[in-house]
Amino acid sequence: MIESLQQVSTIAIDFGGTRIKIGVVQRGRVAALHVLDAESRGGLTARLPVIVDAVRAACAEAGTTTEGCAGIGMALPCIVKAGRILSAIDKYPDATAMDLPAWARQTLGLPLALENDANAALAGEWQYGAGRGSQSVVLMTLGTGVGTSAVIDGLPLRGQHGQAGCLGGHVTVNIDGARCVCGNIGCVESEASTWALAKLARASAGFAASALAREEVLDYRAVFSHAAAGDALATKLRDRAIRVWSAAAVTLVHAYDPELIILGGGIMKSPGPIVARMQQYVNEHAWVGWGKVKVAPGELDDSAALLGLEYLVERGVERAGAGA
């Protein structure tokens, strides 16, 4: 039994801004999962020894070993090309200097498929979740930041430098907006993402009188909860965020011609009216001659990138980041 499991196991590591998820995936199923604090601003190097321990523990829990796994899939919130991290902003800043495929071979004896986190999540939803059967799909992950990815005519979009499709969170939606961490002005992220929310809320008139001012953690869960209870500022922030995400979705429709937009990420754990309002906005504002682009929630939640990494490992380790 252990031998049969070893033949189909993949180690999948999803580096988020706040959490690192380490999973053993077997035929589209997460057989074991360990979660660590990311400490992403402190860099990747310091977390690697802890990750190795978690990988071995997850393998044991799944009834396999690292030696029996087909390979490692690793997803990061960075620009990835051909097995290298080309650019990292704010999270895991030391990753660009690291040879992660070499680390994987030397430390765990396994080949590595390295990918951008949104690209990995879309691979999962496309193969196993809400995008099954679709040939042209866009993913928007709404969370700490805003990630995007695209599949066009059945081919994952990567581009010459690895950044095609994955920078939709950094398109401008407010030319008079604040400077984003990426250097652009008025990005989707700087206008409506969790990392920007506290600053946006505290700069708003009426913040002191709002229930949001009493929240220890100011996130979109709090915004949607207090908006549903009638809080004026929470309602304003909720409605504006949905308009920002909707405007970004229309831009992605015009850029990539999808038949489906999948919404994932931590904010979608309490989606409220997001899907319905974004569908209405896209119907009203997207220039689409053939019909209507469907807006749908993701089906895989936190497992999307992990399952996508299994798919990428199966496609060919150390080639996934090349867009092959």
Structure description:
The chain is an alpha/beta fold. It has two domains: 2-121 and 304-322, ATPase, nucleotide binding domain (Nucleotidyltransferase, domain 5, 2-Layer Sandwich); 132-298, ATPase, nucleotide binding domain (Nucleotidyltransferase, domain 5, 2-Layer Sandwich). Helices cover 35% and strands 20% of the residues. It has ten helices and twelve strands. It has helices spanning 2-7, 48-62, 100-108, 117-128, 188-191, 194-202, 220-228, 232-256, 274-285, 304-316; strands at 9-15, 19-26, 30-37, 72-76, 79-81, 84-87, 112-116, 137-142, 146-152, 155-156, 260-264, 294-297. It has a five-stranded mixed β-sheet with strand order 3-2-1-4-7, with helices on both faces. β11 (260-264), α9 and β12 (294-297) form a beta-alpha-beta unit. α7 crosses α8 (232-256) and α8 packs across α9 (274-285). The longest helix is centred in the C-terminal third of the chain and has 25 residues, at 232-256. The protein is globular and about 55 Å long.
